[in-house]
Amino acid sequence: MPAFDLPLTELAHHRPLPEEPADFEEFWHGTLKEAAQEEVLVSVQPVETGLRLTECWDVTFRGFAGDPVRAWFSRPAGVPGPLPAVVEYAGYGRGRGLPHERLTWVNAGYAVLLMDNRGQGDQYGNGGATPDPHAQAPGGPGPMTRGLLHPRDYHYRRLITDAVRAVTAVRALPGVDASRTVAVGNSQGGGLALAVAGLVPDLAAALITAPLLCGIRRALDLTDAHPYGEISSYLSVHRGAEEAAYRTLSYVEGVSFARRAHAPAHFGVGLRDTVCPPSGAYAAFNRWAELSGADPRKEIHAYPYNGHEGGDAVHVRRQLDWLAGLFSESPA
């Protein structure tokens, strides 16, 4: 795939203001306040995985509207004391899979909560276990278009709420240093980690790679790859629904969350990424924390000849080193 978005020299200064609804903060404050009315943890059950060096639990917590959301909680076996926590969010169409799939952060010494994606899990990977009981509103069949015609009905209102509640859940689990909680994700997971950074002011850090839901309007003009292509396909049938759809999408725009972030941030992006065009990630990075009054450390790594895979394992090593350095400089 040839380069198709802005050149790197322009991406470095790409700072478009999102078309932000006047009630953006009120919308999310009300949504999260409603979700926080119930105790977060439902159950925490140990799981036999066959892994000798990792302990794992099957966690159920209350997310949007008190709905049960599943997650795997893992930590290094036999390591005493509270550990910094990584909350990891999975990609589009993927569920939490099996507990032995994602062990990088556990092997690095972190307690990890891997959140299931409600109403997803059937497109690739090894499945999920969290239904979405609120998916009846008008919209398309895929998560990207479920409830697209009204912000209160939209799938990502529910999923972002779940993501915020996952932070509350991991902080309630034993053996976790709640003051050092980190949001991590790639693609859809990166978009969720970014949203969490804008909605949880005391997050310790956010590690965001190739984020979905960033620079949405521009992405719809640049690419017809899914999942953005699902929106285009829906609007090609439902002619005249653009205004309603764009209004809904403005409530989940990653740049708006980025502007409200407080935490240090580490970004990664492939410059030939047609799934999540790089200009969206740069827009979020360049406007990071501009409304919060914070001045956190931030850095972004671009991979000029890579697509949605970005830096892959090379970038993960950069994430590991960056977060270890961040925590070594901060008192535990």
UniProtKB/TrEMBL annotation:
Residues 1-324 form the Acetyl xylan esterase domain. InterPro entries: AB_hydrolase_fold, AXE1_dom, CE7. Residues 121-143 are annotated as: Disordered. Substrate binds at Y92. The active site is at S187 (nucleophile), D273 (charge relay system), H308 (charge relay system). Gene3D superfamilies: alpha/beta hydrolase. GO terms for biological process: polysaccharide metabolic process. One of its GO terms (molecular function) is carboxylic ester hydrolase activity. This is Acetylxylan esterase.
